[in-house]
Amino acid sequence: MADILCGYTADRDETLVAYLYDDIDEVQRLAFEAHIETCERCRHELAELQSVRGSLRQWTAPESVRPLAVVPPPSAAAPQARPGAWSALGAIPAWAQVAAAMLFLGVSAGIANLDVHYDRGGGLTLHTGWSRPAVPPRASATPDATSVQRASTPSATTPWRADLEALERRLRTELHPASANPSVQSAHDDRNVAAANADAQLLRKMRTMLDDSERRQRNELALGLAGVVQEFNAKRGTDLARIGYLNTQQNATGIEVVRQQRWIDYLKTASLQK
Amino acid sequence: MTWTDEELVARSIGGDSDSFNELVHRWERPIYALAYRQLRREEDARDVCQETFLRAYRALHGFRGQAKFSSWLYRIALNLCRDWMRRERRTPVVQAPEDVDLMDLAASREPSELIEDRLERNDLSRAVERAMALLPEDQRTAIVLKEYHELTFQEIADLVGCPLSTVKTRLYQGLAVLRRELARTNPGVKRENLVR
After folding, report:
1. Do B23 and B56 fall within a single domain?
2. Would strands A145-150 and A123-127 be described as parallel, antiparallel, or unpaired?
3. Cα–Cα distance for residue pair B124/A55, rounded to 1 Å
4. Which structural domain, as residue segments, surrounds residue B57?
5. Model ipTM?
6. Do A48 and B179 lie within an 8 Å CB cutoff?
7. Chain B contact for A60 (CB, 8 A cutoff)
8. Do B64 and B108 reside in the same domain of the chain?
């Protein structure tokens, strides 16, 4: 076909492709249509390229299974951690944290019945005993033994209780305005929104992954099934063909047997006649 | 009310993320298909698609509207595909198409007939994919943009930055290669399957 000459004077290939996609101006189109009426080569090539376009349409891109979406960014630029139980500590001033730690140690020591005893001979000795009953001080205590401190069973007059109450009051006054402050509240809200967005994103990702996995498994299973079905059909076809062949053979053998039988009968008859 | 792309861009610039989501919704599929046909890998296509919208989102303020929003997106996606191929030093590969629902195929009442049809179509799809992978990038891009995205020759020329006649020549040459290749690899393809 290539040896058939084409007398189209303009840019033939460009015009052909423009005509093929119907992206051509009217004058050119009319001129080319008039040309292909008489040009076998162009007509043939046009038909071939239309076939190629038909084939191209068979090639579909797979579905994108991961939908995209823009999540509005939280007001703070840096990613925020989810506020936890310890995040409130940030709002407590350092002095209060230290005081609370000291108080905690003091209370623990009191509850644990801690004895701190200084003896010239034995040096500093510490005794602990959980809820050990308090032993009244003996009058005949060694004169050189100096009791430095004794934290015994807590009573109503324990000094740390007053300290605890004072600290609690001060903490309340420090924390209350912080929670009432709208800017701090809004920062908390932003953190909550960011956390919710992060959760939603995570959920979406998980869902997509699950869908992907499910789809892949389904395809693999179906592919396997299709293979089995195809194999079964092929095998069935072969078996049927073989059965057909055997039947034919059997028929041919039967016919041959009958013919032989007749031949034997004829020979018998002929020999008897002689 | 349906907003135009350009109106949605303006609203997105104003801070309305729903408008940008609408743009993503509109253009995600074409951009993904473009990337897939360029790269032939679903995962890579997805990544490029995502990156395209991410870049578009970041550069939205720079979009002046001289070109159509879609052309702008296509340009970003094509550049990303090119970078992707260069960076990964990969040549496009052929991946089994997933467009055929094999579950239906397997569960069909007349499996042999359906399987034949489906498999033939599948074979053709793969043959096209393989043949496309043989084309030089510029020819493939021209064919993809024209055939699957229905851009005009002028739009393609603007997008890839070459004269109009070059686009037509690339397209013609690409189609000629495909024609030869398909005739070689799929000589038995029924004509009625090709012309639809």
Report:
1. yes
2. unpaired
3. 7
4. 5-88
5. 0.75
6. yes
7. yes
8. no
